[in-house]
Amino acid sequence: MTETMTDPASPEALRADLVEQLTAKGWIIDKAVAAAFARVPRHLFMPEGTALAAAYADDSVPTRRGPDGKTTSSVSAPWLQAYMIQAAQVRPGSRVLEIGSGGYNAALLAEVVGPAGTVVSVDIDAHVVAHARTALTQAGYPQVQVICADGEHGYADGGPYDAVIVTVETSDVPPDWTGQLASGGVLVIPLRMRGHTRCLTLRADGDHLVATAALQCGFVPMQGHGRDPGRRIPLRGDDAVLMLDDPTTRVDEDALRAALDRPSVQRWSPVTAAIDDGHAFETVHLWLASQPRPYGILKVDREKTAGLLDPQDRFFCPTLLTEDSFAYLTLRKQDAETWQFGAHGFGPAADALVADLIDLLTVWNAQHRAGPGPRITVHPAGTRLPDSSGMRLLVPRRHTLTAITWAGSER
Ligand SMILES: C[S@@+](CC[C@H](N)C(=O)[O-])C[C@H]1O[C@@H](n2cnc3c(N)ncnc32)[C@H](O)[C@@H]1O
Questions:
Q1: Closest ligand 1 atom, CA of 64?
Q2: Bridge partners of 75?
Q3: d(Cα 327, Cα 344) in Å, to the nearest integer?
Q4: How far, in Å, CA of 33 to CA of 109, rounded?
Q5: Is the pLDDT assigned to residue 389 strictly greater than 80?
Q6: Band of pLDDT at residue 312, cut at 50, 70 and 90
Q7: Phi–psi pair at 169, nearest 5 degrees
Q8: Is the CB of 74 under 6 A from ligand 1?
Q9: What distance in angstroms lies between residue 167's CA and the mean position of ligand 1's atoms?
């Protein structure tokens, strides 16, 4: 009997491993998506010199950096690509528009839509477009159209689309994305709301969109017309930065910096979460961000600010504010398996902000931690929404008004 052996380090074997991992973790549930991951040679879309093992790891790989050294393009993480393709319900024959190219995700899409479908991918960076075109041809997907343009405007010539998949972080939903969707189509989009990005699966319902799913994720930020980096307030140079997403939030930057030089207030709540309870952290962040009051996120270098600031989440730490004070969510290990939530405040209003944060944690724990999370809807800018029952935050942007509603909440 002859046995065919596959070299365990070959691209085919590494792809099979990746499919197995993604399936075991529940990211791949659709057979056609598994087949696409098993076929598309991800290594051909990588920057030159990328090791095969890195090309087939379940991780994003940066491919371009801006003058400030920040990543402006990457090949996204496979788990997130699988999630988005499935959320968009891409099928054989689907017409799909991808905003933000790289080539690999477009190749996966081309596999799933098959010869009867269409994939158009738009990127603002000519270098990314050239690389994606070359790699797609080399990998056997010359039919994918890669367009160099600002994706804010979609690509009307290829529409209407059954799915628009946005692979760059945006703070708004431009009208062309919804306008180019076919009736019943799906928009999958990493939408930043008050500094927190959730991959939303949006479907039209009359004049607005309703999110049928939301997942925490991260993408490089949008460039071009839709560029909206938010406001950055360095509290200790770049070692501690407060990010404000809402342009109407008024703060006294000097007072906030000075607050760090005064004694702080720290309190612990009775609320806890298991260390691996991702759902708890995902919902508690959005719950705190959804409060109709000034809000920011704190980003810190934990080593350089040790002894002063100690947020467990060093990139997206929820922070309540007044003009001259702030209090952020903090965590400490109660035992090997459990985090305890608390609040750490600075400035003249620190006591009140800390008490408020602890109170909000208690309400979340009692009313929302077991639930599915808030209802998220996206309306045309200027829409006047009827009063809601429950706690609701409205996020106004240039094109849209996003409503985040927590049903049944008394706050
Ligand atoms: C995370 S990468 C896309 C990953 C890719 N879909 C893949 O196959 O893994 C995001 C891309 O969005 C692009 N981008 C940023 N702003 C854009 C805009 N306004 N229009 C189109 N593309 C944009 C960047 O140049 C970058 O290549």
A1: 27
A2: 61
A3: 5
A4: 9
A5: no
A6: confident
A7: -70, 135
A8: yes
A9: 6
CATH code that applies to domain 11-226: 3.40.50.150
What DSSP state is assigned to residue 336? T
- 102 CB near ligand 1 (under 6 Å): yes
* DSSP 8-state code for residue 237: T
76 is catalytic: yes
- Quote the ligand 1 centre to 88 CA distance (angstroms): 18
User: What is the pLDDT at residue 5?
Assistant: 62
For the chain, the structural domain boundaries read 11-226, 231-367
Model's pTM, two decimal places?
Answer: 0.95
**Cα of 107 from ligand 1 centre, angstroms:** 15
Alpha-carbon gap, residue 218 to 168, rounded angstroms: 9
Ligand 1 close to Cβ of residue 224 (< 6 A): yes
Q: What is residue 169's DSSP assignment? A: B
Asked if residues 180 and 97 have their Cβ atoms less than 8 Å apart, the reply is yes
Is 83 exposed, middle or buried (CB count within 10 Å of its CB: 0-12, 13-18, 19+)? buried
Q: How many other CB atoms are found less than 10 A from the CB of residue 87?
A: 21
User: Which position among 73, 74, 76, 269 bears the catalytic label?
Assistant: 76
